[in-house]
Amino acid sequence: MRAVVQRSGPATVQVDEEVVGRIDHGLVVLLGVGVEDEDEDAAYLAEKVAHLRIFEDADGKMNLDVQTVGGQVLSVSQFTLYGDVRKGRRPNYMAAAPPDKALRLYEAFNAELRRFGLHVETGRFGAMMQVSLVNDGPVTILLDSRRGF
Question: How far apart are CA 107 and CA 100, in angstroms?
Answer without folding.
Answer: 11
